[in-house]
Amino acid sequence: MKSVIQSAKRLIVKVGSSLVTNDGKGLDTAAIAKWAAQIAQLRRLGKEVVLVSSGAIAEGMQRLGFEKRPTEIHELQACAAVGQMGLAHIYETSFRPHDVRTAQVLLTHADLADRERYLNARSTLFTLLRLGVVPIINENDTVVTDEIKFGDNDTLGALVANLIEADALVILTDQKGLYTADPRKYPDAQFVHEAKAGDSALEAMAGGAGTGIGRGGMLTKILAAKRAATSGAHTVIAWGREEDALLRLASGEAIGTQLTAQTAQLTARKQWMADHLQTAGKVVLDLGAVQKLTSEGKSLLPIGVVEIGGEFGRGDVITCVDPQGRAVARGISNYSSSDARRIMRRPSAEILSILGFVEEPELIHRDNLVLL
Ligand SMILES: Nc1ncnc2c1ncn2[C@@H]1O[C@H](COP(=O)(O)OP(=O)(O)O)[C@@H](O)[C@H]1O
Ligand SMILES: N[C@@H](CCC(=O)OP(=O)(O)O)C(=O)O
């Protein structure tokens, strides 16, 4: 069996609290330096990597002198705010020797459910990747409570995989992967090398967190794999202290548990666009634009739009119709209906002078467009 990571171009790597903070003893500088060196190498191999890192609460507890995990949510939030400073600092300094810049991105699940914020987060992450930066993502614990209660960076990793259409999600944890039962409680449990992401039998194998530091346990990882698979991303669960785990995966070595997505990436995304989103408005295209979209696979530029129907916001899904009113495509609009009315029929180079800002040169980027 070959690792799916070998052919993956865009990867999310998620590291759990127990790994990052050495089981709550404080940031594990040596381990973080090793992941940074590997991620820098992956970039040189042409892969784009986004890191989702837990550990803010564990590090904050350590810095503030809490011996036990506080039970009050606002104290946990305070710990996260303090600990996040440590995470940001250590990642920036660990990547610096490799000439790689890092960026701090704090998100909530609600941010990714809101279409406008979803689109904003997506554009920012793509821009950071294009600029060669490694985004370091964590939950924005100050403004949420549910995620803190359940400890859900595994889910966040999957949501980010969906968001930027990653090819794979690598979840590094304190076990070699998934076993048929929690190996801490059942030493005879068998290792699972490979399975289908979303197979419900896996959920029965997965137990809760193994230490007081980690939160989600294996179940959130299995569910994250299921979610990542909806946009075609494969998941690998591996031991974060395995020597050169990321580089070995990238060279094709099948370490850890590989949970393969059953749907092809493009199909999954199109399915999502077609099934899950109601359209908020409509744009009428001229024949040239219809041709560009349907025959040439191009994005929709404002110049090809002759009429706008309905009211919609940036991030809403709109229908594109041909001059006869037949629906030809559906996609996520980069501009609100009122802005779109001002820039339609105009070249993208004029957007700045008309609106005073430019979101994107396209009204709908082809990645956010599905032909009907
Ligand atoms: N079937 C299983 N296979 C492997 N580990 C399991 C399983 N069920 C529960 N676990 C527990 O899940 C833990 C990893 O989850 P967690 O503590 O949340 O780590 P992290 O901080 O990396 O997210 C392991 O240490 C292990 O004790
Ligand atoms: N935002 C929290 C993440 C909590 C969490 O999901 O932890 P883990 O199960 O170790 O990935 C923190 O940084 O402490």
TrEMBL record:
It is found in: Cytoplasm. ATP binds at K14, T173, D174. Substrate binds at S54, D141, N153. InterPro entries: AceGlu_kinase-like_sf (IPR036393), Asp/Glu/Uridylate_kinase (IPR001048), G5K_ProB (IPR041739), Glu/AcGlu_kinase (IPR001057), Glu_5kinase (IPR011529), Glu_5kinase/COase_Synthase (IPR005715), Glutamate_5-kinase_CS (IPR019797), PUA (IPR002478). The keyword Chloroplast does not apply. Catalyzes the transfer of a phosphate group to glutamate to form L-glutamate 5-phosphate. Its EC number is 2.7.2.11. Belongs to the glutamate 5-kinase family. It comes from the Bacteria. This is Glutamate 5-kinase. Pathway: Amino-acid biosynthesis; L-proline biosynthesis; L-glutamate 5-semialdehyde from L-glutamate: step 1/2. GO terms for molecular function: glutamate 5-kinase activity. HAMAP family: ProB. The lineage of its organism: Bacteria, Pseudomonadati, Pseudomonadota, Betaproteobacteria, Burkholderiales. NCBIfam families: proB. It holds the Pfam family AA_kinase. It catalyses: L-glutamate + ATP = L-glutamyl 5-phosphate + ADP.
